[in-house]
Design goal:
The chain is an alpha/beta fold. The protein is built from nine helices and 14 strands. It holds the Pfam family Trehalose_PPase.
């Protein structure tokens, strides 16, 4: 492959493309290496659907020893952070590597690697969330309790419906709901969302999640972590791997910092009208594992 044939990830900011147009990273690794521009990658990894295949129930997820070893080796050479919608304590347990930086709850709960300090979004004058946290989360438990109760009232009679309560959110999953029952599932959600005081709704893969109504997401968490970890200089490049709709928040901000987004999406998602702000694409967690190993080979 010649240098002139390499495609450079300089797409217009915030321009989403059909996922079929994303560059298959394992087929065009030279394009990925060119995008690094000689900088040290700072690797941000989603968990479900990215490091581990999605399971029908969150507690049934399987993170293989081979994938764990790939992350461990990567973290021995490069800065690595796990950025997940799971509660931080949960994703820390699932990954099982205590030396990493973890951001759970879509970035609301952050623990830096041992060389840094631990915090729930460390105070930082540059972060809009820091001021919001002083009062913005007041009453959150009560609001989540009320939303959880409303969801149970509407969904408990629907076979396969799953309500997942987390520290900073509550989610309703329809992955195991029969197609015939999905209209009833949607109607129950519509009833629950009539009172969103203090909360906002976020769609994901086969789920809807209700989070604090604060301007914070995985994208802002990535920007925060770059500063907190001291890897926001010109010699570093943020590389974010994610599969879900919530990961688009991170993909969307990456062009602003000359970063790189890698969507994890198989061929089964082609032709469904999905678009993404990522630039590269890999098919599945096995492909992610292969690429992580290649990055430190």
């Amino acid at each position: 492959m010649t240098a002139s044939s390499l495609r450079s990830p300089q797409a217009p900011k915030n321009q989403a493309k059909p996922i079929e147009q994303l560059i298959p990273i394992l087929d065009e690794t030279a394009s990925f290496l060119a995008a690094l521009k000689g900088r040290t990658p700072v690797v941000f990894l989603d968990f479900d659907g990215t490091l581990a295949p999605i399971a029908e129930r969150p507690e049934a997820v399987v993170f293989s020893a081979a994938r764990r070893e790939a992350v461990r080796k990567l973290a021995g050479k490069l800065p690595v952070a796990i950025v997940s919608g799971r509660d931080r304590a949960d994703v820390e347990k699932q990954v099982g590597l205590p030396g990493l930086t973890y951001a759970g709850g879509h970035g609301f709960d952050i623990r830096l690697a041992p060389s840094g300090s631990a915090s729930e979004v460390a105070p930082d004058d540059a972060d809009p969330l820091a001021a919001e946290l002083d009062g913005g989360l007041a009453g959150l438990v009560e609001r989540l309790d009320a939303m959880e109760a409303a969801l149970h009232a509407g969904l408990d009679g629907i076979a396969g419906a799953l309500i997942e309560r987390k520290r900073f959110s509550v989610a309703a999953h329809d992955r195991m709901v029969a197609p015939a029952d999905r209209p009833a599932f949607a109607a129950a959600l519509e009833a629950a969302r009539r009172d969103l005081r203090g909360l906002r709704e976020k769609a994901g893969k086969r789920l809807v999640e209700f989070l604090p109504d604060i301007d914070w997401d995985k994208g802002k968490a990535v920007l925060h972590l770059r500063r907190a970890l001291g890897v926001d200089g010109e010699g570093y490049v943020a590389v974010f791997f994610g599969d879900d709709l919530t990961d688009e928040d991170a993909f969307r901000v990456l062009p602003e910092i000359d970063g790189i987004g890698v969507l994890v999406a198989g061929a089964d998602e082609d032709g469904r009208g999905r678009t993404s702000h990522a630039f590269f694409r890999v098919a599945d967690p096995d492909g992610v594992c292969r690429l992580l190993n290649d990055m430190v080979a």
